[in-house]
Design goal:
CATH architecture of the largest domain: 3-Layer(aba) Sandwich
Order of helices and strands: EHHEEEEEHEHEEHHEEEEEHEHE
Largest sheet: 10 strands, mixed
Distance between the termini: 37 Å
Number of helices: 8
Mean pLDDT: 95
Shape: globular
Strand order of the largest sheet: 1-2-3-6-7-16-8-15-13-12
Low-confidence stretches: none
């Protein structure tokens, strides 16, 4: 059999071979697998969803590309590969990625839909080079240069490592899932978080919509804090985990209100969330920007490969590249 691509416009049409490819590496597949699983329940008339798979000559699924959308906007192009890091030389990936790019070009009504691509670094760079040539739209630059890392029950560190709250500030804290009464506070932090992640800056209305989705789906936890007996409670930090599959949970947002920094709030909350999630999951994954000080927090909680102690299997570089914003329709994720 010769290598081939297959296109699917509804997730219920995705064959078992692709689901099995996702299941073999749920962590790396977190950008496609959880959403595709949910999308199987979408009505047939739901438009804007597209998956393209590349099957090699042995009929193995080696690449899956998604071009999908949700109520908050279009997602970037996500690409999952079953190839390990040693199998991502240009000679290994250029042909399949060109096939995916040409299939994508033929499936889209408007090339402006492709505003960014996120995948492991080698795949992103090669696909974007190919797409730029096909579309005539220049690569604008890096949106997100990140380390993909993980935490398990075996690596999660004890809470005794956490700094104590200063005794002279009369602080009280409470940690747990966000509830509907916290909507405005959670939305404020979602909006502030987006300002740290250009170009995906949210409006107040979009932040409220995202916060409501996270709360309704029980996918966001908050660290409440109060200074002084008669002061109102505030949200110091939030942690969202909104891409979850059978055995893996993905932390998608960690943010601390600048007013409450240097108190260990993010670390305290993230450790609590990880402990809860690991009761049902085998692994928690996340992406952290290269050079982002948050990596130190994640390292202290137990996420691997962030402490400068050498390479760790399963920890790798991921990259998002964006295209000329004057020629594309920017989405959000």
């Amino acid at each position: 059999m010769s290598a081939q691509t297959q296109v699917y416009t509804h997730a219920s049409d995705i064959p078992e071979a692709i689901w099995n490819a996702f299941k073999r590496n749920e962590g790396a597949a977190n950008i496609l697998y959880p959403f595709a699983s949910k999308a199987r329940e979408f009505p047939r008339e739901n438009e804007g969803q597209l998956w393209i798979a590349y099957f090699d000559q042995t009929e193995q699924v080696t690449f899956v590309l998604s071009c999908t959308t949700r109520s908050l906007g279009d997602y970037p192009i996500f690409i999952y590969t079953a190839h390990g890091p040693t199998e991502r030389q240009i000679a290994d990936i250029a042909g399949p990625l060109e096939s995916l790019a040409r299939e994508l070009e033929g499936s889209l009504a408007d090339k402006a839909r492709v505003f960014a691509v996120f995948a492991c670094e080698a795949v992103t760079r090669e696909f974007c080079k190919i797409w730029s040539t096909l579309s005539g739209i220049n690569i604008e630059g890096e949106y997100y240069d990140a380390t993909f890392t993980f935490c398990t029950n075996a690596t999660l560190t004890p809470s005794s490592n956490l700094r104590t709250l200063p005794e002279d500030r009369n602080l009280a804290i409470s940690l747990g899932p966000a509830e509907s009464s916290h909507l405005a506070l959670v939305a404020r932090l979602c909006e502030e978080f987006s300002k740290t992640s250009p170009p995906y800056v949210m409006s107040r209305e979009a932040a409220l919509q995202e916060a409501k989705i996270l709360i309704d789906n029980k996918e966001v936890w908050i660290h409440l804090i109060q200074e002084g007996d008669n002061k109102e409670w505030d949200v110091a930090s939030l942690v969202a985990a909104s891409r979850n599959s059978d055995h893996v949970a993905t932390v998608t947002k960690v943010y601390t209100n600048p007013r409450w920094r240097k108190l260990g709030c993010a670390e305290r909350l993230l450790r609590r969330v990880c402990k809860e999630l690991l009761k049902e999951k085998q692994k928690i994954v996340l992406y952290v920007g290269v050079g982002n000080n948050a990596a130190n927090v994640y390292h202290r909680v137990g996420f691997q490969g962030l402490g400068g102690s050498g390479e760790v299997e399963g920890v790798e570089r991921w990259l998002e590249l964006g295209f000329d914003q004057s020629r594309v329709n920017l989405g959000y994720w």
